[in-house]
Structure formats: C-alpha cells, structure tokens
Amino acid sequence: MWGTAVKKYAVRIMILVVFVCITALAGCATAPPKSLDQQAADSTYRIGPGDTLQIYVRNNSDLTISVPVRPDGNISMPLVEKMKAAGKTPEQLSNDLKAKLSNYVRDPVVTVIVTSFKGTYADQVRVVGEAARPQSMPYRQGMTLLDVMINVGGLTQFAAGNRAKLVRMVNGKKKTYDVNLQSLLNGNIDDNVPMHPGDVIIIPRTYF
C-alpha cells in the first residue's frame, strides 16, 4: 500500500515536470523578440541606392554639389566620373572622395551629408501583407515596432494583426517571432519591441 502511494506521487511529479517543460517551450515559441534576442542593433547608417547626397568641398563651389545615388550604387560629380557610394558610411565616402580629389585639388576637405534617406537593403525595415501602406523604410536608431506601424498607416480591415510575424537575421540565422500588432495598436505597449536593420514584418489576412 505504501509502495502504491509512492508510485502515484512519483507519477504526479513527472506529470508536473512535463507540464512545466511544455509551458516553458510554448512561451519561448511565442515570446516577442525583446525577450529572445538581446543582440544589439547596429545603428551606423550606410548609404544606399536612391539616397540623395550633399557633397561639400570647402573653398571650392564648383565641386560642391547635390547628387543622387544611382541604382547601381555609384555616384558621379565633377572630377569623379564614377565612385561606389552604396554600403559606405558618409565618413567613408568623404575619405574616398578626398583621396580621389587630391589628384586635382590641394588638400581637399570633403563633407558628405545624406539629405534623403533610403539606406541599403540590409539596413531597411520592410512591412508586407495587410498593412495600410506596405513599404520599405530606412532603419533609424531607436526605432520600435510602433514607429513602423505608424509609418505604414496601421492595419487594413482584413488584417490578422495578432498573427503577424517578425523575421530577423540573428548571428547569420533567420529567426521568426510572433508579434501582436492589433494589441499594440489598441494600446498594449508591452507588445512594442525594438526593431533591427533588415527586419521584415509579415501581416497575414484574417480567415473571416
């Protein structure tokens, strides 16, 4: 009789352990990225195709110019027929232009200012599916999920906002997280999460 009681107690303990493990795994599967991914986002801005650059060469108005970054990632300006700009920081491009212009100008001082932002594809945040205005947007330091949803105008009437997914590259591997967009837009700030460059938000259509 004592042995039977011990066995029943042991079975109950095993069931409790299994239940706790299943609950923990379920929580990890649906947790927002802020609790799973502590990898710091790189906020360094890199020039991308479609950006507009103001290039200022001190004491040389003929070389001071506003130029677009072409789809191939290159720019052109007086004395510089072609130079790669996409993927570089403004400081890196300034140094490259300085080295190039030094063949023609004595000790050039070059400043590059990005006046219209697109960013490289890897630095953009994309929203697809049932957003009011699906789009790509440049990542900004401190950007959150709420910022992104405001930028795209919220959800359509057919959106299943609480079944949305956030796709992110973490240490070279693609990870997918659940995000509750409807709850966030209804005021639950706990569903707000920080964004990273390259994030993709996928908003499915409701079944009904």
Number of domains: 2
The first-to-last residue Cα distance is 56 Å
CATH fold category name of the largest domain: Outer membrane lipoprotein wza fold like
Computed CA radius of gyration, to the nearest angstrom? 25 Å
| Helical segment count | 5
Instruction: Identify the CATH homologous superfamily of the largest domain.
Output: Outer membrane lipoprotein wza domain like
Oligomer: single chain
Order of helices and strands: HHEEEEHEEEHEEHE
Described by the principal axes of the CA atoms, the overall outline is: elongated
Widest sheet, order of strands: 7-6-10-8-9
* Alpha-beta content class: alpha+beta
Please give a structural write-up.
- With 208 residues, the chain is of the alpha+beta class.
- It folds into 2 domains: 34-43 and 121-203, Roll (Outer membrane lipoprotein wza fold like); 52-116, wza like fold, CATH 3.30.1950.
- The protein is built from 5 helices and 10 strands, in the order ααββββαβββαββαβ.
- It has helices spanning 2-30, 33-36, 90-101, 145-151, 181-185; strands at 52-57, 65-68, 74-77, 80-84, 110-116, 124-129, 135-138, 164-170, 173-179, 200-203.
- A 5-stranded mixed β-sheet has the order 7-6-10-8-9, with no helix packed on it. A 3-stranded antiparallel β-sheet has the order 2-1-5, covered by helices on one side. A two-stranded antiparallel sheet has the order 3-4.
- β3 (74-77) and β4 form a beta hairpin.
- The chain starts with a helix and ends in a 5-residue tail after the last strand.
